[in-house]
Amino acid sequence: MKTLILPLLPVKAQPYAKAVVALLGTLAGIAVLYFGDEPRVAAAVQVLTALGVYAQPNGQPAEEDAATE
């Protein structure tokens, strides 16, 4: 599975990729609640956040990468 966020994260943060996606989704949801007027947009952000957390695999720590190669 190809990841979009994992290559952008520092190596130490890669094992927590799902948490990073959840945090970004939460921040986007809060921004939509305060600055958006459309409830459907807020609902869509929440659904897309849930799907993103589900689809995003956590990265492997550097020690595990070296052991599997």
Topology:
Elements: H1 17-35, H2 39-55, H3 62-68
Helix pairs in contact: 1-2
TL;DR of this structure?
By secondary structure, the protein is mainly α.
What does this structure look like?
By secondary structure, the protein is an all-alpha fold. The protein is built from three helices and no strands. α1 runs antiparallel to α2. The protein is elongated and about 40 Å long. 4% of the residues are buried.
Supply Rg. 15 Å
Cα distance, first to last residue? 18 Å
- How much is the average pLDDT? 78
SS elements, strand count: 0
Shape: elongated
Overall structural class, as computed from helix and strand content, comes to: mainly alpha
**Beta-strand residue fraction:** under 5%
Largest sheet: none
Helix-strand pattern: HHH
Poorly predicted spans: none
Question: How many alpha or pi helices?
Answer: 3
Helical content stands at 55-70%
Index terms:
69 residues, mainly alpha, 62% helix
